[in-house]
TrEMBL record:
Species, as recorded: Pleurodeles waltl
Highest taxon listed in the record's lineage: Eukaryota
Protein name stated in the entry: Uncharacterized protein
Amino acid sequence: MPSVAVGLFLMGGALQEQEQDQGEDRDSSLRELPLATQDTCTALEHNIDTMAVDSTLICSDMGKISKRVIAAEVTLTDHTEVIQTLQDQVGQLKEKTAYCYACAGDAEGRCRCNIIHLVGVPKWTEETETEHFVEGLVCLMVKPEYLSA
């Protein structure tokens, strides 16, 4: 029995020591808790400050980009107006060119008729292309016998 009592005593002492160690650990943990909380709060404040600086930089960059977009829109509007003006001028030039071609064609036709009537060139030359017409006139000037053809 004495050995059982000694064993229980020793075991009781070990339990008591273990409880005492756990109590000290808990006390030290409780003492360390405010420090850990303070460290966590400091880290969070640092992160918040960093995010505030980052968001300020982002807002600044967004402002710059917005100004560039507005400038690009203004430039685009200016270019659109210039392009529209150029297209209008090209349209006017096309109309004038078509009118000039019509006048030239009319003048060429009248010249052919006048030459035909003056020189007595056969009627078939009126329907020929300009190159053939000129060749025919040269032939008539060099060899008048083509008139009878």
